[in-house]
Amino acid sequence: MKIVSYILFFIATISNGFAQKEIDSLLKKANFEVYDNPKSAIQIGHQILNSKSAKAETKIEALLVISTGYSSQRNYVKALDYAVKAAKLLPSINNDAFKFIIYSRLGVQYQQLKIYDKAHSYLDKAILVSKNSKAHYNFHKLLGFNYAIRGMIYKEQMSCELAQNYFNKSLYHYSQCPKEEINDANVSVIIYNKGNCFIALNEIDSAKIAFKKSFEHADKINANSLKAFANKGLAEVNTLEGKYDVAIRLLLDASKMSDDVGDLVLNQGIYKGLADNYFVKNDMQQQQFYNRKYEAITARIKQNETKTVNQFVLQINDESHKEIEQLKSDALYYKIPLILFIFMMILVLLFEISRYQKKSKALKMQRKKLENTL
């Protein structure tokens, strides 16, 4: 009987090992496809979530993959929803690296919602985890990601000069990481944003170099959406230089590459660029065609933003309600000892008053006895 038990245990162990390997393989595939084929990444994420073999850490990774997939589609309502679900699993995890990435990912979602105070709050929590961690993790990759998001926030909120400082910090940390495909994707995004800053600062030559480098990193991993973004940026440089035919060719290539991605903001930029360049070339038929596409996709983006804001308001209300309940609970926690202390003090006071009255009464009786004796 013992032999049978050992055999069954051995088989179960091997099965679990194979299951975990399969899940790890699926996660790697999902992370690779999250930019180019977000639908597939989201489906894989759900497949992992539904797996009985998935550990808590694996589920968090799957939730973050789904969140990032929805971000790629600019569906920020669902992106935020899955990021929050990942955060709720955080108390069950002792891995500081996971805590760091979850806080940073939440920072990303709020950055994309343009709710910058909340984004800074989560990014700061991530940095605090890295500073307080007693574990020897390689935080370069995580810090690279965190500083990249800070750079994007400062680019949108303050100035490109400040943003470039954080982008450079981010690139330094990524340069210290082992070579991974996901790192090339992130570096491509960072350099693309540096290119946009160079355009804002009127440093056209630097912008051109940045967009070409961004394309090279995206091409290493064949990330079509990132290559499309780089082409869009390079097209903008060519438009500024008066090279309208080159800009149109780059934008048409970008449009082909982004067909299966479904990134509304990317397509919005491509259609706007094509409409503007065809207008300069006086090709009004093509200008009107792409302008209509631009207006239609802009309307969709505004609709999504409205839904996102409504969802965020509901989330804030829910969080506020929880905070109020927690405050009430905390207040009660402190009030009970205080009430007990006051009650004890009253009892002591009553006891002392009673004792004093008894003593006083006894003294009066003794005084009367003495008076009668005299």
Q: Layout of SSEs?
A:
Layout: H1 2-33, H2 38-49, H3 56-72, H4 76-88, H5 96-112, H6 116-132, H7 140-157, H8 160-175, H9 181-200, H10 204-220, H11 224-240, H12 244-257, H13 264-280, H14 284-373
Concise account of the structure shown:
This protein has 14 helices and no strands. It has helices spanning 2-33, 38-49, 56-72, 76-88, 96-112, 116-132, 140-157, 160-175, 181-200, 204-220, 224-240, 244-257, 264-280, 284-373.
- Approximate shape: elongated
Estimated helix fraction = over 70%
Order of helices and strands: HHHHHHHHHHHHHH
Count the helices. How many? Answer: 14
Unreliable segments (pLDDT under 50, ≥5 consecutive)?
Answer: 1-18
- By secondary-structure content and strand pairing, the structural class works out as mainly alpha
Question: Mean of residue pLDDT?
Answer: 79
Distance between the termini: 103 Å
Largest sheet: none
Tell me what portion of residues adopts beta-strand conformation. Answer: under 5%
Topology, number of strands = 0
Radius of gyration, in Å, reads: 32 Å
Describe this structure in words.
- This protein has 374 residues and is an all-alpha fold.
- The protein is 85% helix and 0% strand.
- It contains 14 helices and no strands.
- It has helices at 2-33, 38-49, 56-72, 76-88, 96-112, 116-132, 140-157, 160-175, 181-200, 204-220, 224-240, 244-257, 264-280, 284-373.
- Helix 2 runs antiparallel to helix 3 (56-72), helix 10 (204-220) packs antiparallel against helix 11 (224-240) and helix 12 runs antiparallel to helix 13 (264-280).
- The N and C termini lie far apart (103 Å).
- The model is unreliable at 1-18 (pLDDT under 50).
